[in-house]
Amino acid sequence: MQLLRILRVAFLYSSFGFICLFGDLLFMPIVLLKFNKFEFVQRFCRKLVRLSWGIFIWLCKISGYLKVQFDASSLGKSGEIIIANHPSLLDVVFFLSSVKNLNCVVKGELGKNIFLAFAIKACGYISNEDNEKLLKQSLNSLENGESLLIFPEGTRTKDDIIFHKAPFFIAIKAAKILTPVIIEMRPRSLRKNESWFSVPSERISYKFKIENSLNLAEFLADKPDPIRVRRLQDEILKIYKELR
């Protein structure tokens, strides 16, 4: 049985790689010809990513590898910053396959990945490689009415959840609302530095809990921004403290 589980995961990983590689070949001319600077092109590319990664999640479900509870219909509002904990490799895949025209902050090293580099550029996703560019592009994204996904941990959750300050600075400066999403995953798998063939014996279960959105225009409006950023960080972290 364990061999069958490993073969299933190998098939799913191969499928994901094929989808990403095919997408990158499709996006390559868009990037090389600089069509990705146009907003309508970015929206089209994000739609392709949403549909193709939706197919991958469907394969994961019908193969019995995982089950998911995620109603994303309330997400994706203009000027919304979405934050979430980051328990596994697939977290961003769930969001980008479920929320229309979602922008997100991605790891800088993925911009050099043969399977993802052109897709990231074509969709206008934001690299965290350069802090100054990250802040500028994130602020522009929200001010232009996009919704933006950020994992405040910066990397996948280990034992304790520790949120960096930058996402809350971005939220106070440019977002209209902040929506926390709690990701519960049982059993834990697909973690940082974990081998792909470390397959749990039971089906992986994901549950996404969407908390009430916070109106940032009203959040400590009489306080200076540095205090608002720090208090927002503390307030949101309380929501996640019970996860570990």
Commentary on this structure:
- InterPro entries: Plipid/glycerol_acylTrfase (IPR002123).
- Residues 80-186 form the Phospholipid/glycerol acyltransferase domain.
- Pathway: Lipid metabolism.
- With 244 residues, this protein is of the alpha/beta class.
- It has one domain (1-243): Glycerol-3-phosphate (1)-acyltransferase.
- The chain is 43% helix and 16% strand.
- The chain is built from 7 helices and 8 strands, in the order ααββαβαβαβαβββα.
- It has helices at 2-32, 39-62, 91-96, 117-123, 131-143, 166-174, 225-240; strands at 66-69, 80-84, 102-106, 126-127, 147-150, 177-186, 204-210, 214-215.
- Strands 1, 2, 3, 4, 5, 6, 7 and 8 form an 8-stranded mixed β-sheet that branches.
- The chain is globular and about 60 Å long.
CATH class call: Alpha Beta
Number of helices: 7
Quaternary structure of the protein? single chain
The radius of gyration computed from the alpha-carbon positions, rounded to a whole number of angstroms, is 18 Å
Which architecture per CATH?
3-Layer(aba) Sandwich
Instruction: Give the beta-strand count.
Output: 8
- Provide the domain count: 1
Question: Ranges with pLDDT <50 over ≥5 residues?
Answer: none
State the secondary-structure class: alpha/beta
Write down the secondary-structure element order: HHEEHEHEHEHEEEH
Profile the largest sheet.
Answer: 8 strands, mixed
**CATH fold-type name:** Glycerol-3-phosphate (1)-acyltransferase
Strand content: 15-25%
Shape: globular
Q: End-to-end span in angstroms?
A: 31 Å
Mean pLDDT: 91
